[in-house]
Structure formats: structure tokens, C-alpha cells
Amino acid sequence: MEKGLISVDRWAEGSQAYFLTNLHTDHTQGLSSTWAMAPIFCSRVTAKLFPFKFPNFNLTLLRVLDLGSWHSLSLISPSTGSKVTVQVMAIDAYHCPGAVMFLFRGEFGCMLNTGDFRWEKNCERAKLAKEMLLNALKDDAVDVLFLDNTYCNPTFQFPPREVAVKQVADIISSHPDHDIVIGIDTLGKEDLLLHISNALNVKIWVWPERLQTMHLLGFHDIFTTDTSLTRVQAIPRYSFSINTLEGLNRMHPTIGIIPSGLPWVVKPFEGNGKLFDSLLTSGYNRSKVSSKGGKQNDKRNGNLESVKRFHKYVYSVQYSDHSSYLEIEEFIKHVQPTSMKGIVSSSSCNVDPFYYFGGICGINQPSQKLDNEHQTFGRGGGIEKKRKRVGRLGFYLSRVTVMRRGRKGIKLDEN
Question: Major place of localization (predicted)?
């Protein structure tokens, strides 16, 4: 796609239309209430939440894209001055409220930007989104896939969110005399909090700004800012710390739960505290990936490793709003892209998706191996390939020359 037409989650000058996959801060860096450069296309839920995040924003610049429908944009080629038609479809990314992926097609071919996404294999909502995507593609090939590669590493094998929410509820119910604090972001993990409330018949405390967000999303009776009404509190993740929990425990027994696909700290707690049996039993069979890429099933239901006690006051539960390694693999098998790029280039826990998945792309391209001279070890100990950054979750291509080659799809030559 020619530079100067569209940008996804990138807010520099130079494009004619801008697309926002979700309202998490790492996708809105550079966007502000004074934005006036061009229209912004997003989902209906994102548009509803937008004024709360960006007060006094000129809402006439927002363009709502309904899920599953093609929308046509008439743009002007910066190089030739001729009219360019771009079609775009928004598809549920099932990440946080309003999160979508964008499918683009036109004379340049077909491109898919996933933004952040989580498509669990047995999730009905994800199945509907997958069906919507495959129906939209029909006989078209995805020429370039911009992929959420947050957990593009065999190390990250965590359970579906359905399992993780039950684990969190088990932790809480096994501590009936404790106050509970759960570290969350300003948007996301609503399903987790709703499950806790329904399973344990309790209200959830949230801070005032988060309560406003919950009300905008239609949740009015479950959340409160009155601490006397509940022992379960969802606090901002940035305020979740050992020091905070130690201070709370001087007043009343309190445990903290951090729901994340990443381990919260390096070493688990080695004290005498034991997890209750109800917490360690689940029908989920953890799947491991060997160094040779083969899958090995660990059916030990009584030793589910996705829950760890890292401190006498802290439990870590692998509740992730990003796809796991195996979910990414399944997604790529369905999409069969001709080429792909990871949209996360700064994390130490992922590598270029071609390293693991190049062999299952539509052109059956072999995996790109890491050159030892270009490997560094990040803070988490994972290998990170140094490469030119394409913006934080950005979709901002240099000009490309497109050549159709029969059934082989499109070859993109960057100038």
C-alpha cells in the first residue's frame, strides 16, 4: 500500500485516514483531544468510550465501522494524484471492549492488521469472528498480515480465559476472611470481574474513573466505589505492589491477584503457603511445545502450573487478553498469509513470527532463523531479534509495487 494513504494506531502526519484498533494507551500515543488532521475510523464501542479518554475531542472526526460490513474509502494517491479506493472491514478482536482488527483490500491486494487480539479455540465469540473473517476473505489471499506477536514464543502456553477466571474465583473463595485486591488496567478484564461477581455473589470495588467506564459499558449494579460494600477491590495495576499489600496486611489480612499472561516476578514464593485443592483442579490439559516444535500434553490436572504464588500475599494467574503461542499458530493456519510482520518489536518475550511460523504461510516460506549476531537477551530472558521498528502496533507501509502472479497471490516489493 502506498505511503500517505492510511495509518493504523500511528498518529504522525502524512496519512488521509487513520484507524484505531483499541483504546489502550500504547495504541493512542500521539493522539490527543486537539487532533484535527483527518478522520479516525474505529468500532462503535471505542467511539462510545472515546470522549471519556479524550475530553473535548471533535467527535465529528470519528467514523464508526460496524463489525462484518465492508466500507469504502475514496482516497487520493500522493504519487499520481489519481483516485484510490480502499475497502475496509472491522472484525471483533476480543481483546478489550471495542477492540477490532482491520481487513483492507484494494488494487494493492489484501492486508490484515490484527491489533491486539485473543481468539481462544473453543470460544463462541472467537468462532463467530473467525467465520466472519474467512467469509470476508473468500478466495482472496492475505498478502500481508500485521500480527499481534506479543506472546509469539513457545514459552507462553496459558489456559483459556474461561479457565483463568475460575482459578481467580477459587483463590478468593479459599480466603473467606481476607480482603482481595486485583490489579487491572483502565480498560479490559471486565469479563473476569463479572465472573467473580456472579460466582461469589459480591460487588466489585473500582476507582471512580473506572466506575464511569463500567457505566459507559452498561454495567450499573455490579461495581461500586464504597469499600464498605465488598471485600473485593479492583485497583489500578500501577498501584499493585508488595509494599501496598504489606501495608494493607497491617490493617487486615489481604491477598493480591495479578491476572496476566506474563509472570509477575521471576521466582515463586517458597514459603509454607499451599494452594487449596480447589484451585489446582481443572479440566484444562496444559499443552507444551518442545524445542523441536512438537506438542506434548501434560494431563496432570492436579498440578496446573498457570497459577503460582509468588509471595505470601500475591497470586499470579495467567489470564491474558492476547493470544497464546498455540492460538497464534492456529490463527496463521486459517489465514494463510503470503507475508507477515509482527506489530510488537520492543518486547523481550517474542521474536519475528516468521521464525516459528514462516513454514505455514500461504507461500510455504521457510522460517527465518535468528542470526546470532542480531540476538539480544531482554529483561525477561527471552531472545529478541533486533529489527527496524514499524511503530508501536503500527500499519504504515512504504510504497510498494504490486505484481499478480497467478495463484501465487501478490508479491510486495518495497521501494
Answer: nucleus
* Residue 81 falls inside a structural domain: yes
CATH number of the CATH domain containing 256: 3.40.50.12650
Same domain, 118 and 244: no
Each residue of 276-300: pLDDT tens digit? 333 333 333 333 333 334 443 333 3
* All cell numbers assigned to 181: 485486591
Q: How many structural domains compose the chain?
A: 2
Return d(Cα 345, Cα 352) in angstroms, integer.
8
> Residues 24, 117: one domain?
yes
* 216-231: pLDDT as tens digits: 999 999 999 999 999 9
Report d(CA 307, CA 317) in Å as an integer.
5
Q: Would residue 214 count as lying in a domain?
A: yes
Its domain, for residue 170, covers: 161-267+304-318
